[in-house]
Amino acid sequence: MKRIQFHRYGGPAEMRLEEYQLPDLADDEIRVSVKAASINPVDWKIRQGAMKFMTGRKFPRAMGQDFSGVVEGIGRGVKRLKVGDEVFGSTPVKTSGSFAETLITKEALAVAKPAALTHEEAATLPVAATTAWIALVHKAQLKAGQSVFINGAYGAVGQSATQIAKAIGATVVGRVRAESMSAAKAIGADAVLDYRQSLPGNLMGTFDVVFDTHGSLPANDERRLAKRGGVILDISPSPTKMMRVVLSRSRHFVMGKQDEATLREVAGLASKGKLKLSVGRVVRLSEAIDLIRELEAGRRINGKGLIAIETA
Ligand SMILES: NC(=O)c1ccc[n+]([C@@H]2O[C@H](COP(=O)([O-])OP(=O)(O)OC[C@H]3O[C@@H](n4cnc5c(N)ncnc54)[C@H](OP(=O)(O)O)[C@@H]3O)[C@@H](O)[C@H]2O)c1
Question: If you average pLDDT over every residue of the chain, what do you get?
Answer without folding.
Answer: 97
